[in-house]
Write a structure and sequence with these properties.
Layout lengths: L1 H11 L9 H18 L2 H4 L2 H20 L5 H5 L6 E2 L2 E2 H7 L5 H21 L2 H11 L4 H8 L3 H21 L1
Antiparallel strand pairs: 1-2
Length: about 170
């Protein structure tokens, strides 16, 4: 078995498994080697070394293909909460910023609504329509079609809204 370790390591070194360590790729190679031992038939396959290399390669490729599927992208791009972050870990950062209380949520919502109400008093009918459509998540193109104005007019209205919002925020 030790004479095949170099074959497994050499095969594994040619592959990268997203979200895994190099040792994980080698482990996949050992799984492929174990399957080669289970399924080897000298009458069908000829000599074992070639069959083992094929099984190791296929197992590693299957692991790489599986790890790069779209359903695994969130895990592959995720950060470990134990990962060092300056002098702390993510756990430390999250613990230092507890979730707001329900009361704080209500106060924040009321303050946001008050800001929207005050801003609404300062907006023109076009700006109000653009502002409400944008709050609903509509794109520039969708807003342009609904108010029957060119995209440039929508962009200009949003710039004016931003300026008025900045002024209103400083007074509320």
């Amino acid at each position: 078995m030790s004479r095949y370790a170099s074959l497994i390591k050499a095969t594994a070194s040619r592959y990268f498994l997203p979200g895994a360590e190099p040792e994980d790729v080698i482990q996949e190679g050992w799984i492929g080697f174990w399957r080669a031992i289970q399924h080897f038939d000298d009458e069908r396959h000829g000599y074992f070394a070639g069959f083992a290399k094929l099984c190791v390669s296929r197992q590693i490729v299957s692991a790489v293909v599986g790890a790069t599927r779209a359903k695994h992208q969130i895990l592959n791009g995720a950060w470990s909460l134990d990962q060092p972050l300056h002098d702390n870990t993510w756990w430390d950062v999250l613990a230092a910023h507890p979730h707001p209380s329900p009361e704080a949520d209500v106060i924040d919502r009321e303050a946001s609504q008050q800001l929207v109400d005050e801003l609404g008093k300062k907006l023109s009918p076009l700006e109000n329509a653009v502002f409400n459509a944008r709050r609903q998540g509509k794109s520039y193109e969708e807003i342009s079609q609904s108010v029957r104005r060119p995209r440039k007019t929508i962009d200009n209205a949003l710039q004016r809204i931003r300026r008025k919002l900045k002024i209103t925020r400083s007074h509320v």
